[in-house]
Amino acid sequence: MVGKIASAATAVSMHSRRSPKSKSVEGDCESEALKSDGEGETEGKDGTALEAKMSLLNGITVIVGSIIGSGIFVSPTGVLKYTGSVNASLLVWIASGVFSMIGAYCYAELGTMIRLSGADYAYIMETFGPFAAFIRLWIECMIVRPCSQAIVALTFSVYVLKPIFPECDPPEDATRLLAACCILLLTFVNCWSVRAATRVQDWFTYAKLLALFIIIAAGGYQLCRGKVEHFTFEGTTNDVTSIALSFYSGLFAYNGW
């Protein structure tokens, strides 16, 4: 027992009497190791980080452009056509807004419960499994999105060609050709440069906001002048199919939620 204590004391004494040089060498090695680890982490972060190509203003215009889609310029015609009167169309707009607000609240609740990226795909994956999520994603990519873009492009073509054909409808071939060229041009811009795509998004958002401001201001001016003779339920349809189509048109404008 005494021998073990003596050997332990000797080892401690030898350790404490090591030269300062050896201690400094070990300290330098440890610091170099820590430094190399830190550099590796920095390089790793730099290697995985993406260059920021969108400013705060670009992000705001993208979100505003997604919420206020071009459907607002397409849907009013369908809502008024299928309801048959101005007051009935206003009720459809209000009901569509309430329905969209409820849907937005549901998505907000899902976002707090399922904290995963992927929106609909992630929510359906967690709830119904991979097969339903896969089907939903492919329907969105192959049917819903292309059809929505086709509707907007065709409407844009009609509005552009209408001044050229003021007394008749524009030719279908010309409308489809211009719509196809519009889609191809925007696709090329998005593939070519992120900055160019954000600039196009910015200008389109500004144009939409300006057009909406002009429409709202003109409507408010006419109301102030007392022109309310069109606010009636006269001509309101009772057909269930027409009412359903009017809701479909109204909800298309609220698709941004």
From TrEMBL:
Residues 32-45 have a biased composition (Basic and acidic residues). InterPro entries: AA/rel_permease1, AminoAcid_Transporter. Its main location: membrane. One of its GO terms (molecular function) is L-amino acid transmembrane transporter activity. Keywords: Membrane, Transmembrane, Transmembrane helix. The keyword Ribonucleoprotein does not apply. Gene3D superfamilies: Amino acid/polyamine transporter I. The chain crosses the membrane at residues 55-74, 86-108, 143-165, 177-197, 203-224. It is a multi-pass membrane protein. GO terms for cellular component: membrane. Residues 1-45 are annotated as: Disordered. The keyword Transmembrane helix applies. It is found in: Membrane. This is Y+L amino acid transporter 2.
